[in-house]
Amino acid sequence: MDANTRRSIILDHYQNPRHRGLIEDDQYQKSDTTNDSCIDEIHLMAKIEDGIIADIRFDGEACAICTSSTSVMIETLIGKTCVEANHIIEQFNHMINEEPYDPKVLEQAIAYDDIYKQPNRKKCALLPWWGIEKITRNEDV
After folding, report:
1. Could you say which DSSP state residue 38 is in?
2. Which residues contact 75 (CB under 8 A, 6 or more apart)?
3. Which of 13, 98, 99, 139 is deepest in the core (most CB within 10 A)?
4. pTM of the full predicted structure?
5. What is the CB neighbour count within 10 angstroms for residue 2?
6. Residue 128 belongs to what H/E stretch?
7. How confident is the model at residue 75 (pLDDT cuts 50, 70, 90)?
8. Which of 98, 120, 113 shows the shortest CA–CA distance to 40?
């Protein structure tokens, strides 16, 4: 992915985050994540029906990388089974940590493929993915 496309995706999802705003619904599972080294604090809620992620919502205060990564993650994972989602989460983690990964499964999340060049931003990109993994691992059948 070229640098302009990468920047465009990240900026769009930061300025116009998808699925922002928590709701009151007991059918959703919740997960909270924070980054001790900066302001990032993401609150996630996910609705899983028959092993499929039906919806994910979020709120919180976070930097551009964390906010956009959360929005991209949500768009990538909605409609996937928990097994598929956990595979995508694993591949995203591998990419951020400079390990071999399958870029085909990451969809727009591939926009973060050079975050490793800024080690202090890796946790910003990973934070929401760690949060959703807490939920999907419980549903991984």
Report:
1. S
2. 18, 19, 107, 108
3. 13
4. 0.94
5. 7
6. helix 122-139
7. very high
8. 120
